[in-house]
Amino acid sequence: MIERINPGARASQMVLVGGRLETSGIVALAPYGDIAAQTRCVLAQLESWLAQVGAGKENITRVQIWLADMGEFAAMNAVYDAWVGAQPPVRACVGAALAAPEYLIEIQAFGQI
């Protein structure tokens, strides 16, 4: 059975199936500020979404990160590294044009619950 969490017209925020979870891409709620501020906002949302299904960041197995500017890689990593904890998931990070120029980062997560 597939459980869709907070479905919208185009996508659900998260999908649960067979003990696995997948999020949609998460961007900053207010896409202003620097990469550190947007990264903190995105990671806070991710934690909130996970909490809705009784999970935490320790349940994340894979993270995909898109950066609008790979020159921001170190600044994003400073925030991510402080957040991720002692059991980091596998991760990929690539540069990409995001949906709007205000967005500096987008994160998608996968995990096991």
From TrEMBL:
<dbReference type="InterPro" id="IPR006175">
    <property type="entry name" value="YjgF/YER057c/UK114"/>
</dbReference>
<dbReference type="InterPro" id="IPR035709">
    <property type="entry name" value="YoaB-like"/>
</dbReference>
<dbReference type="InterPro" id="IPR019897">
    <property type="entry name" value="RidA_CS"/>
</dbReference>
<comment type="similarity">
    <text>Belongs to the RutC family.</text>
</comment>
<dbReference type="Pfam" id="PF01042">
    <property type="entry name" value="Ribonuc_L-PSP"/>
</dbReference>
<protein>
    <submittedName>
        <fullName>RutC family protein</fullName>
    </submittedName>
</protein>
<dbReference type="InterPro" id="IPR035959">
    <property type="entry name" value="RutC-like_sf"/>
</dbReference>
